Amino acid sequence: MIAAMKACLFPNAAAVLVAAMALGPFAVPDSPAQTLADALEKAWAVHPQAGAWDDRAAAAQARADLAARATPGPAELSVSSLDDRFDRDRGKREWELELAVPLWLPGQKAAHGDHARAAIEELAARQGALRWRIAGELRAAWWALASARSALALASRRAASARMLESEVLRRYEAGDLSRVDANLARDERIAAEAGLVQAETALLGAEGAYRALTGNDAPASLAEESIAAPPETAERHPQLHALAATARAARARLAVVDTSRRAAPELAFRVVRERGEFAEPWGTALGVKLTIPLSSGARVRQVDASARADAAQADGEMARTRLQAKLEEQRARSELDAAERQLEMARERRAVTEDNHRLAEKSFALGETALFALLRARGLAFEAEAFLDRQRIARAAARSRLNQALGAMP
Fold first, then answer.
1. For the chain, which domains are there?
2. How large a percentage of the chain has pLDDT more than 90?
């Protein structure tokens, strides 16, 4: 826009400004293209918890393998010896070999299997919820970067235009067509524009640093908008709600384990005894079976049971609360997107008005009909309207991303 306005006054610089206009709010030259989905994968790869997820998955699978065993624990083998002659082999001697195997309590094996499967599902759901939270951080950094680029592109165009305006005003001042006040006004405009450019460059460096810290990579060249995702079929498809639902199921499965484990596992032992009375007597062999049934500890059972019930109740409460919060977040995101759409339309109308006024002010100033102050005012309003339009374009794109985030949609 500004390039076309300046072409009539400063034809030698028009091509430069047209080239600058190619740097829109979503692009930087000579950088590799990248999507939000690609950026999410990179952000996940450098996240501190990503490296430990395989170990957590292995631990959950090991629990499932234990629950699938025929016994709740490994067998134990013990060997004992009894002798009434410590220093020589002349008296009574006895050797005993015992193999003890723990046994599942009624319903305990099935409860442990259900809990192991619920724990695996919970781990996968928690991973999805974590990726969803990282996606929210990435979306915010993505559009903060787009905003910083847009501000820098506009500041660059404004600074270039201010330099050309100052050059033209100084030429006419030296020719006696303009006053020294006009020359000072043009110089002040150029200094202010260059100061704004420095500020925009600093802001862009900060936005690029934030993106790099999140993904471990330089910012991509193209920051494309997201399309609005379809609402989830059920509320539990939302990653955060899905994780809470999985946590609630795991808590109830743990409660079932507690209900079937009110005492320690019984133990079945097989015994083989070899003994003799005196040195000259032959060895004899005896076989035996031993069943050990631990008694229940009321206090311990109540403690574990109460803890499991508290976990289940907390998970259900958090599920209900988060479901309501997710609905409110979706409503707010839709409202923000609607407001962004309307403001974008207003920004387009405002830019058209200020562009026309700027063009008329330039022609009038070139003909000597108006003062420089009027041109600077029209010029400032035109740049302000263009900046507002760029901000609203990014605001709409960011609102779409926030709506997708509220819907639980991944990039």
1. 2-407 (1.20.1600.10)
2. 33
- Considering Cα of 44, then 48, then 54, then 60, what sign does the dihedral take? negative
Contacts with 129 (C-beta within 8 Å, 6 or more apart), sequence order: 239, 240, 242, 243
Is 242 within 8 Å of 125 (Cβ atoms)? yes
Please tell me the number of Cα atoms within 13 Å of 8 on its side-chain side: 14
Task: Report the Cα–Cα distance between both ends of the chain, in Å, rounded.
Answer: 33
Q: What residues in the chain have per-residue pLDDT under 70?
A: 1-33, 85-91, 235, 279-280, 296-301
| CA pair distance 198, 156, nearest whole angstrom | 9
Task: Yes or no: say if 368 and 15 are a contact pair by the CB < 8 Å rule.
Answer: no
Contact 165, 175 (CB under 8 A): no
Q: Which residues contact 155 (CB under 8 A, 6 or more apart)?
A: 193, 196, 197, 199, 200, 201
Residue 6 token pair: 């300046």
Q: How do residues 380-392 score in pLDDT, each as one tens digit?
A: 888 889 999 999 9
Closest CA to 13 of 169, 156, 184, 163: 163
d(CA 81, CA 275): 10
Residues pairing with 170 in the sheet = none
